Amino acid sequence: MIYDTIVIGGGPAGMTAAIKAKETCEKAKILIIDRNKKLGKKLYATGNGRCNIANSALDLSSYHSCNEFFPYQIINTESYKKLKEFFMDLGVAIYDDGGYLYPQSMQASTVVWALSDRIKHLGIEIHTTEEAESVEPTDEMYGIVTDCAEYTARTVVAAPGSAAAPKLGGTESVYRLLENTDIRTIAPHPALCRLKTREDTSDLAGVRARCRVSLLCDGDVYDSESGEIQFADGWLSGIAVFNLSMQCIDLLNDGRTPVVEVTLVPEMDEDDVLGYLRKFRDSNPDRRLEAMSNGLVNEKIARFIINRLELKSVTAARLTDEELDRMVFEIKHMRFEISGHGGYDESQAACGGIDTRQLRPDSMEADGYKGLYVAGEYADVTGKCGGYNIMWAVMTGMRAGEAAGKRLTHDKNK
Ligand SMILES: Cc1cc2nc3c(=O)[nH]c(=O)nc-3n(C[C@H](O)[C@H](O)[C@H](O)COP(=O)(O)OP(=O)(O)OC[C@H]3O[C@@H](n4cnc5c(N)ncnc54)[C@H](O)[C@@H]3O)c2cc1C
């Protein structure tokens, strides 16, 4: 069977690409193949079921890629406007919650439904529960071998996502899909996941704290994030930690020893904390040390600090100035050596994938492979939490789909 475009993967990238290809070339015969039973399975689970579609705040730390500037050739203020228009056209009104974009309904299902309905309306064919195994370049065409059929396509959009979240369709086999081409893959690893501490943190289990977290290694600060940290038995998690996980795992994979520094009470500097503790000591000399630091931090953290510093004094009055300084330092620079990380089963995304140095940013077409496009998380671009990944998937799907549609229109008019 010959198709004009075969889209591998029915996530936000693949669904957008199929829609754009068909809208650009009305006569095109398009097929979406997905190994799941339904399209958009991962999308349903995003943003705790609310689907954080995009984010208007952008800086050089928003995306992680071996090709550092590539993501920003696609994601910019213009793309943010285009994405909003795309969803408005699908009938999904957008709610902007301080730069975090959601569907007005606050339901991920609204987004999946709108994309699926447009796909049906456009007459795009869908094969679910079918897995593409390889893409074989042939004369000006591509052979697609799946677990149950073989197809030929004039253009292909490879949008199978990543290995992250296997229960939602993620699979490590995606990285073998293009192995019959010369397109390189950057070795993948989990991203947006929790981090394992070398130290036993069972005494902190269950604590959540507002803080600033920084990733340190050999004296350098790699990244910093503000937000909530969650402590578990031997693990650090929470959005701020997830955002540091990408670089942290790179460091671990390089055999280095990354450290996560937790800065508690972020709105107070060290002098403010010292001032508070001194005042406490003067006004409450008989109270216990736990009570003293509990005035600023969670009770379990207060006890953890006292144990870590091996403070022998029991009451505030007996605390020496030197001990007071150490307590301040611990509150502002609580450090944990990182020894591991969560797996794909608990990751929200994966780093690595198709090397973007072989992709054209205007079309997502692979160099040397006319009509073969890559979209979404399959490319070596991973965003932080907060809408960056869906925004990347949709915008690259848009570019790939439009480029495929234009190529087909051009070929049909020849
Ligand atoms: C729990 C969770 C919450 C998240 N929340 C957010 C959020 O709020 N905001 C945000 O921006 N990002 C979020 N993400 C990340 C975001 O969901 C992904 O980055 C995004 O879905 C990637 O889109 P995609 O189309 O590239 O890939 P996917 O959505 O993964 O879709 C790829 C599709 O391809 C199919 N597939 C894979 N291999 C094959 C094959 N060989 N043949 C056929 N089909 C195949 C899969 O079944 C899948 O349906 C979250 C992720 C998770 C796991």
Topology:
Elements: E1 2-8, H1 12-24, E2 30-33, H2 41-45, E3 54-55, E4 63-64, H3 77-90, E5 94-97, E6 100-103, H4 108-121, E7 125-127, E8 132-138, E9 141-146, E10 150-158, E11 185-191, E12 195-197, E13 208-217, E14 220-232, E15 235-237, H5 239-253, E16 259-264, H6 270-283, H7 289-294, H8 299-308, H9 321-332, E17 334-341, E18 349-354, E19 372-374, E20 382-383, H10 388-412
Parallel strand pairs: 1-2, 1-10, 2-7, 10-19
Antiparallel strand pairs: 3-6, 4-20, 5-6, 8-9, 9-10, 11-18, 12-15, 12-17, 13-14, 13-16, 14-15, 16-17
The structure holds flavin-adenine dinucleotide.
The site of flavin-adenine dinucleotide has 41 residues, from helix 1, helix 2 and helix 10.
Brief description of this entry?
Helix content is 31%, strand content 26%.
Plain-language structure description:
It is a single chain. With 414 residues, the chain is α+β, with helices and mostly antiparallel strands. It has 2 domains: 2-190 and 348-412, FAD/NAD(P)-binding domain, CATH 3.50.50; 194-342, HI0933 insert domain-like (Helicase, Ruva Protein, domain 3). The chain contains 10 helices and 20 strands. The strands form 5 sheets. Strands 1, 2, 7, 8, 9, 10 and 19 form a 7-stranded mixed β-sheet that branches. The longest helix has 25 residues, at 388-412. The protein is elongated and about 90 Å long. The two termini are 22 Å apart. The protein binds flavin-adenine dinucleotide. Flavin-adenine dinucleotide is lined by residues 8-14, 33-36, 41-43, 45-47, 51-52, 131-132, 159-161, 164-165, 168-169, 171, 174, 177, 348-349, 376-378, 387-390, 393.
